[in-house]
Amino acid sequence: MEASDTIFVAFKKAILGFLQGFLPDWTVVIVSILISITAIAIFGPVTMMYLTWLERKVVGRIQNRYGPNRVGIFGLLQPIADGVKMLTKEDIVPQAADKVTHFLAPVIVVIPALLVFSVLPFGKGMAAVNLNVGLLFFLAISTMSTIAIFMGSWGSRNKFSLLGGMRAVAQMVSYEIPMVMSVVPVILVTGSLSTVSIVEAQLGGKWFVFTPWGFFAAIVFFLCGVAEVNRTPFDLPEGESEIIAGFHTEYSGMKFALFYMAEFMSAFAISGLTATLFFGGWDGPFLPSWVWFLIKAYAMIFIMIWFRGTLPRLRVDQLMGFAWKLLLPFALLNIFVAALWQLLPAPKNLIVAGAAEAVVLVVIFVAARKDSPQKRTYIFAD
Amino acid sequence: MFGFGVLKGMSVTLWNFILSYIYPKKGITTVQYPEKKKEVEERFRNFPFLVYDGTPDNMRCVACDICAKECPPKCIYIIPEKDAQGRIQKKPATFDIDYAICMNCGICEEVCPFDAIFMDHEYELSEYDRLSDLMYPKEKLLKPVEHFMKIRPTDCGAIEAQRAAKGIKGRAAQVQSAPAATVKPAETQQNPPANA
Amino acid sequence: MDALHILAKLGIFAAMLVTLTAAVMVVTLRNIFHCALALILVLLGVAAAYISLKAEFFAVIQILLYVGAIMTLVIFAIMLTSRIGDKTILQNNRQGLISFALLGLFNVFFTGAVLKTSWNLNPAAMAANVDAGVLGAAFMNEYVFPFEIISVVLIVALVGAIILGRADQ
Amino acid sequence: MNAIPLSYYVVFSGLLFSIGLYGVLVRRNVIGILMSIELIVNAANINLVAFSRYVAVKPETGQIFAAFVIVLAAAAAAVGLAIVLCVYRNRRTIYSDEINLLKF
Description:
The structure holds 4 protein chains of 4 kinds. Chain A has helices at 2-5, 7-20, 25-62, 78-88, 99-115, 134-155, 159-190, 195-201, 212-228, 253-278, 289-310, 316-343, 346-368. By secondary structure, chain A is mostly helical. Chain A has one domain (91-369). In chain A, α7 packs antiparallel against α9. Chain A is globular, with a radius of gyration of 22 Å. Chain C has 2 domains: 1-85, NADH-ubiquinone/plastoquinone oxidoreductase chain 6, subunit NuoJ (Four Helix Bundle (Hemerythrin (Met), subunit A)), CATH 1.20.120.1200; 124-169. Chain D is mainly alpha-helical. Classes of the chains: A mainly alpha, B alpha+beta, C mainly alpha, D mainly alpha. At the C-D interface, α1, α2, α3, α4 and α5 of C face α1, α2 and α3 of D.
């Protein structure tokens, strides 16, 4: 088990050891950096391709149909077919568009999506960079995609994309705050911002999701993550039914593929981070560490796709109300419960924290009762 | 209560997802088209075809031109046969249906007094050239009554039963039993039908 | 001097250069939206400078606060005030040349003086590792009073901005 | 990383400051001016952090002041932009030389 656990790390050490022989030592450092960069640069797009495949299969199965099974054995070559199609499609730039912004937007939207992979701990010792501010780095870099999405919508000089851009910026800003707040309890308990030490604090099955505050913080974080990535039920910025395709209306061909890739890669990054923060990252009994991380990340992705197969799109006011009136107060109160849990000795803290959590839940539900949708009363239909 | 509607909806989709794996017959509705084809319902109607009993030349159609007159898009074109003296025979020389125009409404089937034209179940009729290939001549339209029985057993059975009851025979039987030029209708009543 | 250090120094100088060119673009570009993008580049360059000063936590705070929050505000303001497609008329007023000359002069003297002064470097400070924990402790112990005052200032600014920004019904 | 002498950082922030000041003096668009003010604030921050790394007795003092400066810059930007919106709503223009009437 030990060998298979750190197979990649050993592989990298082998390469470095081999190069040690005839390269000056500073180039070896650069080579090791390059190896992790190439690993991420390969892993990112490949996960993105097979997430599109997974999404179409799962949503298909939910709707009683097969999903792609023509190209390749189980439709496994479908992402490659999509890729080729995207490459060969003509790349139209609107005539009145602001050329610079229109061109830069897809480029800048992919950079944060790839950068955040550097902080995710894929396995034991397999986090590309062990930043001691890793978690905050993740949140800071993911705000950059907001700016890129807005550049895309402003650059294409199109009413629909501008509407989509406005919605995207408003949504991402208002869901970022509950997201940061729901991460604070994890930092409070582990005492450090680095994702690697967060996972080490959860080793041996002591995952944060089993603690009273952790379970609800995970829900809040995951929902905000789904909203941050503009996926259903928060996919107002690219609401196909009302504003054509939102911010990427005027994009076609490879540029659209970049927007598409950024969305899926950040979806994987968010699920990876949820797995790291609340589900114990690569901690698991038998399988090698990086397998556990992938299992948990893909489980989160399955939930996101499951959302897509079920939930209708939220209205803008419901979307904003949900973030400001429900998630934010809940995340704030959760911090107090986590503090309670952290300070009290072992047996008592579960009971007290559980009770506090129950009180918090009741308070939030009572407060949110007024604007949660009432039972519909039909006047004419019986 | 707040949020339980979402959970109910999610459980429905999850159950659908699992059902599609453990019990595909009930869970999956797609038919893999080229390999397996979906059985069309009996009353499914696509383009019309002409019926003949036994051999193609004793077809039921007597070129009465009612269906051509009734056809809304006017896609049926009939020229009756003429014998040596130029008299019009009760048999079409050319009977063309332009499948490109036909809207498979089935009116020709209803108005035909001689049960000669019925709607087919064949739907794989795509061609390369719309003008010439989709203009079906008589030869391509003629199909045996057995084909009609195979695709629409109940309707065909009812029509055959009616024909048997009224003693209408196929064209071949009429020719043998009435060598004289004029055939009194009364005489043809008693003879049994040529083939049920 | 290890080759790696040279590379690092080159990287930092490159980042500084990029920041300065982006800053010049912020000030001179005609299309105001491009200026905002150049400003974002400047902020990232400044964050890179913080990293070179071994203040990673501060660099991340800078990105999160500036690029995430303030730039979104600025972009919203740009969007609300500039009509789509209005031709960008002259952005600079007449006092361009004079201020450029004066500032150039100031810079020459400033850099001259700076390069000549010998700073009494404090080696202890150079080695210190200022991470989030140290900052947090300082915020809560020594600087707790300004910390509270700042939150009051923020609330006042928030309420003020909302009232000013809101269209009067 | 302390191979870089402190004076480089001070010169860098001086340049940034002067570019920002040039922007404030020259730009006609009020939002352009606000952006230049952000430049000036960033220049000040760099100085604070650089000095706290090289010279300060307690290394975190500079960074704390820089944090306060960032927060205040955010508050200033928020109020500034709200004022800009008000001016735009009343006067339909955000060019500073056209906004020269105190009371109309």
